[in-house]
Amino acid sequence: MCHLRQFPEELSLSKVKRRLFDTELNSRSRAGGELREFGLMRKSYLENYRRGIYSGLLLSRELKKHLLMMQEQAEERFDSLVEQMARQEGVTEQLKTQEQMLWGG
Fold this sequence. Notes:
Number of domains: 1
Largest sheet: none
Distance between the termini: 74 Å
Shape: elongated
Number of strands: 0
């Protein structure tokens, strides 16, 4: 006689993935850092459009490391672009203090 183990019906693949992701985020302080806007956007993109890559990173416990790396690269690129735009437009710290209403938009 075969005894099948009964699993709750609510245990779906998405819930298993969520638990793996939450466990990885909470237990892997070694990777350090906190996910912010760009890291969360990358996670959403992988979840919705690159499910195979997302699942592979999640199961190999490399997801947070990947997200933090992509976040760092995106933030560096963003800062670089803002600096370039400020130079092109002639924005200086002096302008920011003198014309706060204009600067703030």
